[in-house]
Amino acid sequence: EDKVVQSPLSLVVHEGDTVTLNCSYEVTNFRSLLWYKQEKKAPTFLFMLTSSGIEKKSGRLSSILDKKELFSILNITATQTGDSAIYLCAVEAIAGGTSYGKLTFGQGTILTVHP
Amino acid sequence: DVKVTQSSRYLVKRTGEKVFLECVQDMDHENMFWYRQDPGLGLRLIYFSYDVKMKEKGDIPEGYSVSREKKERFSLILESASTNQTSMYLCASSPGLAALQQYFGPGTRLTVT
C-alpha cells in the first residue's frame, strides 16, 4: 500500500521566519510528487517534482526531491501571515502502465504564521 | 479560467438518508476524483473516474458509490448516510493519463446527524 507521511503535523512561527516542511513516501513505481497549499477551501497547486536534486522555485517557496532517500522538502523563506495554510504533499505511482493521475496524499502540515 | 464546482458548500443530512454530491468541471478533463478530508488524515481517495461511465475504487470506497454519465459531471452517492461520513468532501479533475496537477473544487462540508 502506498504511503505518504508529512512532518511536522503543525507548526507555529513568526513573520520573517524560514520553515521547512517534510514529506517522505513509500510507493511502488513512483512517478511524481506534488505540493499543494490549502487555505479556506480548495487546495491550489504549488509544485510538481519528478527528478532528484532539481530545485523548483516560486518566489519565497522552493522544493526539492530526493528519490534515493524517498523524501521531499518544501521551504518557505521570510514567512508572511498569508502563508498560513495547510500544506499537502501527494505522490503519484504507476500501476498497470498508467496512473490516471491518481494521487496518494499525506496528512498535511498546518502552518500558522503570527505577525 | 479553470473551474471545478460542487453543488453545495454545506449540507446537513440525517442518518439513513440518501445523499448526492455533484461535481462539474469545465475543462474537458478525462479524470475526476472524489476525496474526503478529515483532520489528521489528509485527503483520502474514495473513487475516481478516467472516462465517462468508467469508475475505479480508491482507498476508502465503502459506503459510497459514484456515477459519471457525462464527461463534465461526477457524482458521489451516499446510499445510506451514517454519522461517520461527516466530513469535508473535495472533488478534483485532471487531464490525461498522468498526474498533471489536479484542480480542486471548493469542497462540501457534510454533517450527518
What tags apply to this protein structure?
heterodimer; A: 115 residues; mainly beta; Immunoglobulin-like; 6-stranded mixed β-sheet; 5-stranded antiparallel β-sheet; 11 strands; 57% strand; B: 113 residues; 7-stranded mixed β-sheet; 4-stranded antiparallel β-sheet
Describe this structure in words.
The complex is a heterodimer of chains A (115) and B (113). The mean pLDDT of chain A is 92. Chain A is elongated, with a radius of gyration of 14 Å. In chain A, strands 2, 4, 5, 9, 10 and 11 form a six-stranded mixed β-sheet that branches. In chain A, 33% of the residues are buried. Chain A has one domain (3-114): Immunoglobulins (Immunoglobulin-like), CATH 2.60.40. Chain A is built from no helices and eleven strands. Chain A has 115 residues and is an all-beta fold. Chain B is an all-beta fold. Chain B has one domain (4-8, 15-94): Immunoglobulins (Immunoglobulin-like), CATH 2.60.40. Chain B has strands at 4-6, 10-13, 19-25, 31-38, 42-51, 54-57, 64-70, 73-78, 87-94, 103-104, 108-112. In chain B, the strands form two sheets. In chain B, strands 2, 4, 5, 6, 9, 10 and 11 form a seven-stranded mixed β-sheet that branches. The termini of chain B are far apart. The mean pLDDT of chain B is 92. The chains are: A mainly beta (115), B mainly beta (113). Chain A binds chain B through residues 4, 6, 9, 31-32, 34, 41-45, 48, 88, 90, 92, 98-108, and chain B through 4, 30-31, 33, 35, 40-45, 48, 50, 56, 58-59, 90, 94-107.
